[in-house]
Amino acid sequence: MNDAQHIETLEFETDEGLGSKARIGLIVLQTDQTVEHELSGLLRGEGVALYHARIPNDTEVTPETLRRMEQDLPAVAGLLPENFVFDAIGYGCTSGATMIGEERVAQILREVHPAAKTSNPLSACKAALAALGLQRIALITPYAPEVTSEMQDNLQAAGIEINAVATFDQSDDFVVARITSAAIREAILTIGARDDCDAVFVSCTSLRALPVIAEAEAQLGKPVLSSNQVLGWHLARLAGLTADRPDAGQLFKTQLVTHS
């Protein structure tokens, strides 16, 4: 007798699956060791699903290697399945968004996922500063000066006053991910102490800044932002999520500024 005759067909029912409240996509750099870990905590919640795809990139961070990611971005965005029906999708690279261009990144993501709202850490930083009502910041990066300068110019062109800039001056993304949170905290406290800075922005999704944000804010008495924090906040708000994350700083107490 054929064994298949003894295989029972089971009845089942379906529901909305994971992400009944929000489905969020994230494009992660191949060399990034931090952003998935930090965003999974920021976006965790009942009915919220986070899905990742990795984009090829060079370990050496230069304007040229960052711009090179543009050619792979459409295919990688396509690895996030269209039938998941994403509410929001983020490209997780601050310096890459600077070099490729925020609008170009958004255009590519929308071409693949026309119904999804889009973000990247640079755009998210601008949205976060608007939500907090701040314009004067100190900028901390891990990048070489030529990458840092382009980011500074981009933020200033958006009307953000940058009165202090400091960098760890590392072009190796593997090294950047190994910079300790304690070293990042000390950098925040040092550069953020200036009276002409109302907030500090720590750029780069590889930097482990999130664990020290609340502590640094308490010591400085002013908001501290990081690439992963602002991206997580912006994606959450774009997807209609309003929850606070007490350990993630003042930003998560705010909502998006909408323009009529």
Automatic annotation (TrEMBL):
Keywords: Plasmid
Domain of life: Bacteria
A Pfam family annotated for this UniProt entry: Amdase
Gene3D superfamilies: 3.40.50.12500
UniProt xrefs under InterPro entries: Iso_Racemase_Enz_sf (IPR053714), MaiA/AMDase (IPR026286)
Protein name: Asp/Glu racemase
Lineage start: Bacteria, Pseudomonadati, Pseudomonadota, Alphaproteobacteria, Rhodobacterales
